[in-house]
Amino acid sequence: METLDNTSRRSFMKLAATAGGGLFLGFNWTNSSALPVVVSTKQVAAGSVNFNSYLSIGTDNFITIISPNPEIGQGIKTAFPMVVAEELDADWKLVKTVQGNLDPGAFERQVTGGSGAVPHSWDRLRKAGATARYLLVEAAANRWKVPASECTTSDGKVYHKASGKSLSYGELAEEASKLTAPKEVKLKDEKDYKLIGHSVRNVDNHNIATGKPLFGLDFYREGMLFSIIQRPKAFGMKLKSVDSAAAKAMPGIVDVVTFDNSVAVVGKSTWQVKKAREALKIEYEKEADLESTSDHNRIFQDLLDNGKATVRRKNGDVEAAFKNAAKIVKAEYQCPFLPHSPLEPMNFFAHVREDGVELIGPTQTPDRARGEVAKLTGFPQEKVTVEITRQGGGFGRRLAADYVMEAAKVSKLVKAPVKVIWTREDDMTGGTYRPAVRYRFEAALDKDGQMIGYKLRGVGMNAGNTTREDNFPSGSVDNLLIDSVDHKSPITTGPWRAPITNFLAYAEQSFLDEVAEAAGKDPIQFRLELLEKAKKAPAGDVKYDVDRMIAVIKLAAEKSNWGKKKGVSQGFSVYFSHRSYVAQVGEVIVEKGKPALKNVIVAVDCGIVINKSGSLQQVRGGVVDGLGHAMYGNLTFKNGVPDQSNFNGFRLIRMNEIPEVDVHFVNNGISPTGLGEPALPPTGGAVANAFYKATKQRLRNQPFMEDAAFKSIS
Amino acid sequence: MALFKLTVNNRALQAEVEGDTPLLWVLRDNLGLVGTKYGCGIAQCGACTVHLDGKAVRSCVLPVSAIGKGKVTTIEGLSEKGDHPVQKAWDEVDVAQCGYCQAGQIMTAAALLKEKPKPTDEEILSTMSGNICRCGTYHRIREAVKTAASKTK
Ligand code: FES
Ligand code: FES
What value of ipTM does the predicted structure carry? Predict the structure, then answer.
């Protein structure tokens, strides 16, 4: 047996106090088949039991479960405990959720990203709940001297029907903690679920609606200093000289420190440091190309034609297919850079002390933050603690640890606890954007309208592989070539909600609409035929689930009454991303000569839906996000400087611009496959295809608002 | 620096700050009332909405020197127990995703309902469109405003 590390023991003791004694169950986040361990407070305090994480049942009947993954609005802090409570047959009103701090000894994959938290933890959570329930039943059966098989549970109590006896979990917790956990435990049948699949309200609703200090930006500690940082205004510039005398003389300013290419103003309040920053006199010099959007447009064309491409997937003989084609369809699609714009801008608290580092704030990857800060400060990892706050959105931006590192650097330089705050302008102009990309698609059709050849080239600005080479339509076309070219730009990029697919899906699904039209086929029928082909005579590997994709397509067609609505122009799109499948139908109505998007019908297969209310929110939010950015989102550059710096120049979608979003889930009993991202990618295509249907104008450039074709119809 | 005496949530409070400091930062940094959020600082997003004499204002562009004897209400003071009809509707409809924008949304909605207890759909849309929700919870914000209106006498 290993001993507990200090972090685990500390957090355990904190919770033990909350729960007031009782049953503690450690379960393993690393290995879903590992045996849960029952631990008593004494054992843990002596450091003799290794557990990885736990739920606890207090003698006061309260059940506490740690939710280790960062909550950024995806609802994990509600969904995780729901799964445990379901198997436990707990009374939901008595369940408390605690956000776990970073604790790699206890939790694996303490990350929010890639829509992976629920798929990762599904089995672990269920087993934890079921094991605890088993022990509570055993304890009751022992006390009543009846067979455990005669006992039932519901709402936090064990019942013995024949004798009419019942005991609450709290009353049984002590006894249950002395029993040995079973090797195997029976999990519930889906049909018996009382919580899973139903609507449970966000556990933090009350705190949110009453303005409790939940977020990183809200964190405050006596003696803490505030810092705002001036970073180079242009990508490609570096710091040459700083004159901070005027800034230092301003009220409330404690210090001005310089590191890397940054100048940090440190002082007593946000407003004071913000004003003092304006008094800095800084000179920069060029260290790389100062790129403008016009340069990017030129580079895109050049690399599409002449770039040295990396082949991502190749099937059959593409050249021959195009030579023998009866018809060739070609089109290019482009998307701009985008900032993430979480409503809570970047911020972090750091206190670099002599004996270690304390980090507190919003991060999607606490482990990365810790690792990088440990490297920076030279402390071993266990001397760096990370407390995770609720986060005002993330959208991928908080996967990077740059802003955590800044806080640590400033704290180290001024030898004080510091919270670094980014203004909205800093957040929007500070980089790690969704990369700009341009795609060129080509399709070869034979005389019967079969797609016999398919080519895709993606060119990205610091985007790496801009394709998802094994996604549909790969596997359904005999002759196929997918490649990509990357341009190294000084403009920094990073993952943005549904990385790559957030624009690839729109481009691909719009292009397939063009191909279906050229083939003289209904867009849905066209896709279904391709999928039939992928199933019966696959071209190379098929790495998506053809049946799941067909099912969402059919559900969307049915729910939208596809092709049968009078006066409504419908556009179709379907996409597989992360592990889930989503089909969407956009509906445009022309009013007084102007097309307007009225409705989006969504069919989702994310496996079993855990929280119906939260899942509906994720899907609607994903559609609104996808639509808003496809429609308005545009970050452009002049000589390395972003042209937009706040929500006056960069337009986010508002309430009067949303369509109705009608959501339907496929019910197939598959273990949950994730939902934070998959609803977003198909939206741009469904919308663009619906506009095409209504106006015969293809929208090949995002944002649509600035596309000449869109301007001609609106 | 000057001393400003303010009435916030019916309490007499004071802060020693420069007169141009926006009310938002006085609330957050000086008075410890962090329920009012910073989103843009230029009156675009509504995250910082508070009530000044019962009317919704954007505290990020309101210098503390301009408040005078005005009564400020923040999300913390909207109701004593967090049971204002708008707060209750927000829970019932389960509006929040990340939750960051919601204090501002609630304050905007509460001011609307105070002025117009039975707003039309148009009025809800035009008022609430001033507030950004980056998570896209607009459908439920709309629904929650209607729910709250239906429960206000
Ligand atoms: S922070 Fe005041 S409107 Fe955005
Ligand atoms: S709930 Fe996240 S910004 Fe509105």
Answer: 0.98
